[in-house]
D-inositol-3-phosphate glycosyltransferase
Amino acid sequence: MSASTYESFSLPVLEAMACGCAVLTTRNKGVLSYAEDGDNCLFIQTRDPCDIARKLLSLQEDTALFTRLCAKGMETAARFSWVCVSEQLIAYYRNLASYRPI
């Protein structure tokens, strides 16, 4: 669970997904590029302990939801592996190198 109100990318959330954890996180800008409520995480309201408790209980009671969040989180994290990111970076640089000077 991450109750942070601001993150630039929120690597801890992505690391938790990579470990196969069901993730609860706030809807901060850092996670919005990869987190999807109900798909690979559950969004919680900042400073709302009742909402956090409801979401935690939903994970305990709904095993299908728990299993889906864990699996989808691992799929999400795989897109950000060192191998994937380095391949994207190499492709980007190759594309830049292919341009002719003006």
Notes: The domain at 11-97 is CATH 3.40.50.2000 (Rossmann fold). The chain has a mean pLDDT of 95. The chain has one domain: 11-97.
